[in-house]
Design goal:
The protein is of the alpha+beta class. It folds into two domains: 114 residues, CBS-domain; 91 residues, 2-Layer Sandwich (Alpha-Beta Plaits), CATH 3.30.70.260. 27% of the residues lie in helices and 24% in strands. The strands form three sheets. Strands 7-8-6-9 form a four-stranded antiparallel sheet. A three-stranded mixed sheet has the order 3-4-5. The chain has a two-stranded antiparallel ribbon with strand order 1-2. The two termini are 19 Å apart.
């Protein structure tokens, strides 16, 4: 995660005044900046918040906004992206194992890394399989897909709002109707999909679960 930090985002300190901070907002064209005391992350200041104060007021006398989500140094990429998707602020603080502030990561950087890591920028189909109550076999799923002339490029497992496991797959083919039908014959429930080819006889009502990771 350390390599994801944007070193160009300035950090606000207790000795800064409102005027100091507003100048940084103007220079860096950002809506939020991190506020740090020594190595401790205290929250974010926004330009809108600081406009309510006098220009010579010290930041130490103003309550910052809490972080909606915090990324830890050892978080896997999928967990970091999940946190980014849950946060409204475009910046997320990164803390080390001792809880010390390391820097901030931009949402767009996480999304771009996620897309590259799982080859989502490559041509091909995306689909999600609900694994609720099913003893699934990844080898069997791969064989079913290969039987329809496809291959799995990447995969990851998440949980939906009901805490059911969802297997998300990126395939190397765009024509995935036959794959979806074959998976259904073997008892696998495809709950969402995305492809350049229209998929017949299926409802496209649950694709939001996957696309939240990709909404830049």
């Amino acid at each position: 995660m350390k390599s994801y930090i944007n070193p160009n985002i300035p950090v606000l300190r207790p000795s800064d005044t409102v005027d100091d901070a507003l100048l940084l907002f103007s220079d860096f064209k950002t809506n939020h900046l991190p506020y740090v005391i020594d190595r401790s992350f205290e929250g974010f200041f926004s330009e809108d918040l600081l406009l309510n104060y006098d220009s010579d007021d010290r930041l130490t006398d103003i309550q910052p906004l809490p972080a909606e989500e915090i990324i830890l140094e050892n978080d896997p990429l999928t967990e970091a992206v999940r946190k980014a998707a849950a946060a409204q602020i475009m910046l997320l603080p990164l803390l080390n194992a001792d809880g010390e502030f390391m820097g901030v990561i931009e949402k767009t950087e996480l999304y771009e890394r996620f897309i590259r890591h799982f080859a989502l920028h490559e041509a091909g189909g995306l689909l999600e399989i609900n694994l609720k109550g099913k003893d699934y076999s990844l080898a069997e799923i791969a064989r079913i897909i290969e039987g329809e002339s496809g291959k799995i490029i990447s995969l990851f497992i998440t949980h939906d709002i009901n805490n059911d496991m969802v297997l998300s797959l990126k395939l190397d083919i765009t024509h995935i109707s036959a794959v979806i039908s074959a998976l259904g014959r073997f008892g696998y429930e495809v709950i969402s999909y995305h492809s350049s080819e229209p998929v017949n006889n299926l409802e496209k009502d649950r694709f939001e679960m996957l696309m939240k990771y990709l909404s830049i």
